[in-house]
Design goal:
This protein is mainly alpha-helical. The protein is 47% helix and 11% strand. The chain has 4 helices and 2 strands; from the N terminus they run ααααββ. It is elongated and about 50 Å long.
Length: 108
């Protein structure tokens, strides 16, 4: 996923088709409709699973909201990577995370 701070809304929105090919990414039809588009986007599986929030009234620009989304998705990748490293290092157990609550169960 590319960082939204270095590009236009249209470029960033179109890049999501490549980054998330198995999601039903909505098509952005107008820059002025970014909040409606973003509200639909967060309902796509990849974003819903990452607990990404819809735009709020206080989100004045799309970049403000998109930067939050980008950070949430990058944090999700880091957590997934940490879990994979534990498994490779001989971690015998289960790691669960749901709405910010983590639980690790160790096998004997």
């Amino acid at each position: 996923m590319i960082n939204p701070n270095g590009c236009s809304l249209n470029t960033w929105a179109n890049s999501l088709f490549v980054d998330f090919p198995f999601d039903c990414i909505p098509i952005l039809t107008s820059d002025s409709e970014w909040k409606n588009w973003a509200s639909s986007l967060v309902n796509c599986d990849s974003f819903k699973n990452a607990n990404v929030r819809a735009p709020r009234a206080g989100d004045v620009t799309w970049k403000q909201w998109a930067s939050d989304l980008y950070q949430a998705m990058e944090l999700g990748k880091q957590r997934a990577s940490a879990t994979a490293v534990k498994k490779r290092a001989g971690h015998h157990g289960v790691s669960l995370s749901f709405h910010g609550v983590s639980l690790e169960l160790e096998a004997d």
